[in-house]
Design goal:
With 94 residues, this protein is α+β, with helices and mostly antiparallel strands. The protein has three helices and five strands. The chain has one domain. Strands 3-4-5 form a three-stranded antiparallel β-sheet, with no helix packed on it. It has a two-stranded antiparallel ribbon with strand order 1-2.
Length: 94
């Protein structure tokens, strides 16, 4: 059995895949009526993990953003991301 190793920061998906993921986050872990992640897991993913002073490098499109788990937070309130994005994914043109 062959095992493919993928760098942990690399995203191998399409814009459509990412949109499905974002819809699932918006619906607190539910996609097309099916629970994919628990609501607690989604809440944890959306917690801001950094302060702006901790971020030493960000793609130009993400300058001034904070970071949650797995996504840049373009806006946040009370320590929770309210707008998430992936400018690195867009920069690769996938």
């Amino acid at each position: 059995m062959a095992v493919q190793l993928i760098h942990q920061a690399e995203q191998l998906s399409s814009a459509e895949d990412y949109m499905h993921f974002l819809i699932m986050l918006m619906n607190k872990g539910v996609y097309q009526g099916r629970r994919i992640l628990s609501e607690n897991a989604v809440n944890e993913m959306l917690k801001i993990q950094t302060t702006l002073g901790q971020i030493k490098y960000a793609p130009k499109a993400a300058e001034g953003y904070n970071y949650a788990l797995g996504a840049w937070a373009a806006d946040w309130k009370d320590g929770k991301a309210t707008v998430v994005t992936s400018p690195v994914c867009l920069a690769h043109g996938r």
